Amino acid sequence: MSKFVECIFFALIVIAVEAIRNNGELAEISEFPFQVSLRINGGHSCGGVLITRKHVLTAAHCVNDYIDPAEQNLWSASIELGATHLNAGLRYPISRISIHKDFKNEYKPMFLPNDVAVVHLRHSVKLSPTIQTIALPRMMTEVPMNTSLIVSGYGLINHTAYLPWDSPLRKFETKVAGCEAINTTTLWNVFCDELRVGYAACNGDSGSGIIDANTKTLVGIVSGIGDECGAGIEPDVFLKVSYYIPYIKSELAYDPENSKIQSERPARNVEEIFYINDCYSPGCAYKSKD
Ligand SMILES: *[C@@H]1O[C@H](CO)[C@@H](O)[C@H](O)[C@H]1NC(C)=O
Ligand SMILES: *[C@@H]1O[C@H](CO)[C@@H](O)[C@H](O)[C@H]1NC(C)=O
Ligand SMILES: *[C@@H]1O[C@H](CO)[C@@H](O)[C@H](O)[C@H]1NC(C)=O
């Protein structure tokens, strides 16, 4: 290649990267085998993280609207996993949704306090090279400034796009940075990413996992998405998972035969809502028995 062609080539690449928001890079599901697509009423609504063969961690704001049976707005709740593109993976129905009791659906200031939920599956998922659980972090482990992070998700590539039926999994690398762009004083249980145009989460990425790029351990889930998705106005806000271990553990211990815990927090058992089953894909796992 001549020097001249090389230069043009380089310039084009730089322009392309600058112009794309939340494009990051395409990812393979085998890099993030814990990545889940949460499906409410038949379509992808949020991401999630497979923490046991029967439990998924996600953001409370993803399921908060469906907790009240009186609303009658939930007719199908499932997860999909194991595929690099949406609508190509295995589906498993959800049996229970629980959200943190101190979750507040307040968008001002920008982030939502205690934005964490645990979703229970009716059947244990079958593990494979593309379907794996990820361990919870140790209780109260800090996520220091400048920690390198990898964020993955099936969400939009920019704030005006529509989610394609077969939206691919994408990833981007970032670092823990200050949350100064957000007006709040209660930031102990969240962390933010760098303001870097084009590298950010977007709609549909909420609930997805954030891993430490060096240790590959789970550190956060996507909670708040910056204005206009990666426009460099606001950072993304991630829930610090290590600060929610007691809630998560108590939810993992939930026993339907002994449902005292049920009354202690907003939760809904959703076995009964399956009058539309979301299980028409070729890889449907609806009937799988453990
Ligand atoms: C984070 O990185 C920046 C830029 O390299 C540096 O100025 C700052 O001191 C670092 N902060 C910490 C807490 O390591
Ligand atoms: C957003 O993505 C859509 C779909 O790819 C594209 O047509 C549109 O130009 C993008 N908009 C911006 C502001 O980048
Ligand atoms: C934060 O507060 C300042 C001063 O009250 C205000 O000017 C600014 O617009 C606020 N920013 C956000 C993101 O709400």
Question: Quick summary of this structure?
Answer:
The chain has about 290 residues and is mainly beta.
What does it look like?
- By secondary structure, the protein is mostly beta strands.
- It is 10% helix and 27% strand.
- It contains three helices and 14 strands.
- The strands form two sheets. Strands 8-9-10-13-12-11 form a six-stranded antiparallel barrel.
- The N terminus is likely disordered.
- Bound molecules: 2-acetamido-2-deoxy-beta-D-glucopyranose (3 copies).
Query: What's the helix count?
Result: 3
Low-confidence stretches: 1-20
The overall strand count is 14
Shape estimate: globular
What is the topology, as strand order, of the major beta sheet? 8-9-10-13-12-11
Order of helices and strands: HEEEEHEEEEEEEEEHE
Quickly give the structural class.
Answer: mainly beta
Strand content: 25-35%
Percent range of helical residues: 10-25%
End-to-end gap: 58 Å
Query: Rg to the nearest angstrom?
Result: 19 Å
Bound molecules: 2-acetamido-2-deoxy-beta-D-glucopyranose
Q: On the 0-100 scale, what is the average pLDDT?
A: 84
Biggest sheet: strands, sense, closure? 6 strands, antiparallel, barrel
